[in-house]
């Protein structure tokens, strides 16, 4: 059934504050893409609620009128998860930016989903606390989006991703009802529905209040910058450091194209310009522990072939080194306004071989690839750089991106570490999961959203979007009629 968008707009306006319904074509342009700019889809309507009750009222109306809806945070996502590929109401949480409660005694904070990631630390830094997950887009991305994608960041090596720091969530389910998942304690009895919801990419509902775990600010922090003549040598340094039992808070690698782009961007050679790769290593904890870890990590970098190892201990010096890493994608975007950022994961031991293979694929496809990534946990972020005006370039870019993800899978890795699947990588889900695996996931989804209104078409292959995946799905189902696939048809 095609929704009556005029009727929906008229029904929505009394439920929301003034100017909270966006329907003008020129204003809707702001919502036609996320950080993944290869595809653009303009939604027919966008709403901007400010409270849980308003979100619930909107979702309940969608259920009544059978209107699909998509939750959207800051729009910094990189997997097309917040795009309205097919007409749907976009529920943007960007006006839900209140810090609802600060509970330092129990080391937690509760915020609305539109609160920006870096604001959480800013709210408690003066009291000696911080929020650990820190995506590179942390000055722009929202906590709600981080929950949807289970985002990571520089410090996920030691402290984990978003799911390790969310205690509880107030959630509006696809029928408009409000529930709480998790609780104030790190461990709660019963099924971990909190864990199921985190990373579900908006397919199970919308989180409207999120309780986060806070950490004490480390006593001492140091950052090392090591430069290498090859990516393989930098990868060997990662292997040696982790193998020695040193656990950095973060360990990031950048290749030469990234190094030069960052130095040009800031007009100063912060990183060794001719290095094939640099490794940034952050170590934190007790002063004596950090001092010993710095000595070990520096020695192992030199053993692996580092040209030099630079230490930064002051807040200013550390921030200067991290500024380049955090700005790498923006710096590359200045040279190549169009880029496609992938998000594969490989075992650390596979890094040298996979990086060399990406170089070969880059040459085969005739497209430049720059690498900046979380080396400590093997989460690659290859940026495919291209000129948007070139004929047929989008297809070449997507083909190279698919080859890189296939490479990650073959190395024992994953198609995504923190950016999610969305619409961009759903057709590759059966590279990792069998048809029965996916059907079991769909059983959970259908139990919570039987009408399929919450972010439809995302995360899983569909016949329309992934014909090849669907063909293989049907073949497996025919071979095993008793599988969860058969169960799915009667749900």
Protein model, in words:
The chain has 491 residues and is an alpha+beta fold. It folds into five domains: 5-92, Uridine Diphospho-n-acetylenolpyruvylglucosamine Reductase, domain 2, CATH 3.30.43; 99-216, 2-Layer Sandwich (Uridine Diphospho-n-acetylenolpyruvylglucosamine Reductase, domain 3); 220-327, Alpha-Beta Plaits, CATH 3.30.70.2190; 336-410, Alpha-Beta Plaits, CATH 3.30.70; 427-490, no CATH class. 37% of the residues lie in helices and 19% in strands. The protein has 18 helices and 18 strands. It has helices at residues 5-12, 25-28, 52-65, 117-124, 143-149, 156-159, 193-197, 231-243, 256-266, 287-303, 315-326, 328-335, 351-365, 393-410, 429-432, 435-448, 467-479, 484-490, and strands spanning 21-22, 45-47, 69-72, 89-92, 99-103, 108-111, 129-130, 166-172, 178-182, 206-213, 215-216, 220-228, 250-255, 277-285, 308-312, 338-341, 368-374, 382-386. The chain has a seven-stranded antiparallel beta sheet with strand order 15-12-14-13-17-18-16, sandwiched between helices. A five-stranded antiparallel beta sheet has the order 5-6-10-8-9. Strand 5 and strand 6 (108-111) form a beta hairpin. Helix 8 packs antiparallel against helix 13 (351-365), helix 9 crosses helix 12 (328-335) and helix 13 (351-365) packs antiparallel against helix 14 (393-410). The longest helix is centred in the last third of the chain and has 18 residues, at 393-410. The two termini are 20 Å apart.
